[in-house]
Known about the structure:
By secondary structure, this protein is α/β, with parallel strands linked by helices. It has two domains: about 1-140 and about 280-310, Medium-chain alcohol dehydrogenases, catalytic domain (Quinone Oxidoreductase, Chain A, domain 1), CATH 3.90.180.10; about 145-255, 3-Layer(aba) Sandwich (Rossmann fold), CATH 3.40.50. The chain contains nine helices and 16 strands. The strands form four sheets. Strands 3, 4, 5, 8, 9, 15 and 16 form a seven-stranded mixed sheet that branches. A five-stranded parallel sheet has the order 12-11-10-13-14. The radius of gyration is 19 Å and the shape is globular.
Amino acid sequence: MRAVICTAYGPPEVLKLAEIDKPVPKKNEVLIKIKTTSVTASDCIVRGFKISKWHPIGFIMGLVIGFKRPRNPVLGMVLAGEIETVGKDVKLYKPGDQVVGWTIKSAFKTMLGTYAEYKCLDENSIMAIKPANADFKEAVAIIYGGLLAAHFIRKANLQKQQKVLIYGASGSIGTAALQLAKYFGTTVTGVCSTKNLKLVKSLGADKVVDYTKEKVSEINDSFDFIFDGVGKKKGSEFKSEIKNLLSPNGKYFSVDDSAPNATHENLNLLMELLSNGQFKPVIDRTYPLEEIVEAHRYVDQGHKTGDVVITI
């Protein structure tokens, strides 16, 4: 089968299209013919090993995925596709089921492997049936940002009519956080650049702030929950300033505060909202698998809007 392999840690050019063996499902696994995957910010971090190996997080990352090069050379965390065959003990799925999936089991067990034509997943993996009214590109586009955003939204325990500020509201995680916050009945202020103001407003933001024209720390309001969907270094001036906008019992989370925990509950919620038209996938660009190097170059720039989808 065709797959993109990561030959070493480094720039996008370390990714090479190759022919590798097609996987065979074990008795408790399903074999998925992948239709779409995504290039995420996390994929780029893994590819470039952008955390020092001497940093505690970098050391753990090396232990999990390999220090010199990825032990599993096929990267990719999310997929949408169709089940081709199932192992003899599989009960939850059948051939022909169209599914979405997430390959990260835990911070210490990272399977990856979706930059390929096929992938085997345990039937109990974070996986769900794709809504019939969504195509494979739309479905895969909400998994990464949606699952990460849902982790922090749940952690915040949002209540109706609370006020929420989302910094980076036009990114993959930010667009998902905005829509989930609205689903839970809150009033949302989204922060983004000038070119994305219309998009963020269309996703349901009650107010939009252009950070190129207005300092976020000078917003004349207070918030019950502030979410940084971009991530800055801990202890940065930005984090210190933005916390001044919190209400007395307000909560603040950033995407780089902890390793998010993806759950079946959150993936099922995302698929339900997608099916009901309550969640709008935001796709910046789409590339074929053969152009994944270009896709990584684009994501590396750090300015994508929503998701970058790979078709296979």
